[in-house]
Specification:
single chain; about 160 residues; alpha/beta; Rossmann fold; 6 strands; about 40% helix; about 20% strand; globular; electron transport; Flavodoxin/NO_synth
């Protein structure tokens, strides 16, 4: 059975809620899931899983979106870990009233690319909290991710 680690940063609970929804969707696809807060996780924890998932909000007190403070060490630590042979995806919440929207998702995507991990499904950004459409989107991404992993296991 494939396994996934979802690591998230959440200030208002929106990204945590999305992590739980995505995790449940993956479980329903037959993937074993562990969910952890980013501040209590090390990047090397990803080595024990087939799929590496980061969920992060974007902090935006100014005009430029930034990584959350609790995610910065994890982000920097990613440069020192080889995740070749692993799959990854990223999701995150933002507030579209800011000109730089959900940039933490983009930042983590760039960092994952440097680790050697392969993108399983495209990154996913949503505004504020996950509502019905976002839940459906997360479930659809879980199905696609499961198909990608199962196809790899068959080859």
């Amino acid at each position: 059975m494939a396994s996934a680690l979802i690591v998230y940063a959440s200030l208002t609970g929106n990204t945590e809620e999305a992590a739980e929804i995505f995790g449940q969707a993956l479980v329903e696809q037959g993937i074993e899931v562990t969910i952890k807060e980013i501040g209590s996780t090390e990047v090397i924890d990803f080595l024990a899983y087939d799929v590496c998932i980061v969920g992060s909000y974007t902090y935006g007190p100014g005009t430029k979106g930034e990584l959350p403070e609790e995610a910065q060490d994890f982000y920097e630590e990613m440069m020192n870990v080889d995740l070749s042979g692993k799959w990854y995806t990223i999701f995150g919440s933002g507030d579209d009233c800011y000109p730089e929207w959900c940039t933490a998702v983009d930042d983590f995507d760039q960092q994952f690319q440097k680790t050697g991990a392969k993108l399983a499904v495209p990154s996913y950004k949503f505004n504020l909290n996950p509502e019905e459409q976002e839940m459906e989107d997360l479930y659809e991404r879980a199905k696609i991710l499961s198909e990608v992993i199962n196809q790899k296991e068959r080859s």
